[in-house]
Amino acid sequence: MPAKKLKVKSSKLKVAKKNIKAPKIVVKKSAKKAKIEAKIPVLAKTKGAGLNASVFDTKGKVSGSISLPTEVFGAKINDSLMAQAVRVYLANQRQGTVKTKDRGEVNKTTKKVWQQKGTGRARHGSKRAPIFVGGGLAFGPRPRDFSLSLSKKMKTLALFSALSSKLKDNELKIVKGLEEITPKTQLMAQVLENLGIKNASRVLLVMPKAKEAENVYRAARNIEGVEILTANMINAYKVIDNKLILLMRDAVDVIEDTFMKGPHNDFASRGKQK
Description:
Blueprint (H helix, E strand, L loop, with lengths): L9 H10 L11 H9 L10 E7 L5 E8 H4 L5 H14 L59 H17 L3 E4 L9 H10 L8 E5 L6 H7 L5 E5 L5 H6 L2 E5 H11 L15
Parallel strand pairs: 1-3, 3-6, 4-5, 4-6
Antiparallel strand pairs: 1-2
């Protein structure tokens, strides 16, 4: 006999549905994904904070301290970005004007060297061929453009990374009173010796502006191993290439004013997502 159908009131079904709770679906992150997320740096707003650094006088003694901007001298050191900035800088120094002449450009006769048959020698045509002395060069260098590009923001961050690395390694000194020096090479050499720099080699002296520190330029330009640069022209390659960086006191303000302004380096908008 067919089974009887059970009749259940609709009100009871509604109550039963309300009492049933939907199971919670828990999605577990894989260990690999968690590691990848942990490596992503979180950019925090650090504007206004400063790093304290000693300021030396021309006698090599500590005469005070200065608060350096963290964004410039306390940035995260990015080795790959600095390497990229160095590669771009060196590539842009290449002229790419070298050129050799191929067989179509050398000034030689096109007359056949000797007859095709009967001499017993190998068959040849023009003396312009690369096989002959004075002939064209096969696969020689031609003019080309070696220039590479790097965005303004990447250049700025590479510079900040280089300056931060130098400060961390105690290879950056801030000096005041150099603008009052007499433009004499001997006096500048004495100042370097007072700062503990003997037999100067690969020293970068950063001035605020050319007109404001003309005496410094004239005093230091003839010292071997010392490179002079204005603060607004400083770049990551010059900082990395030199062993010691000497910053004049006013040059710090010029670096801050030059490289911390503009939409390419808006530190105030860091960490904000639209």
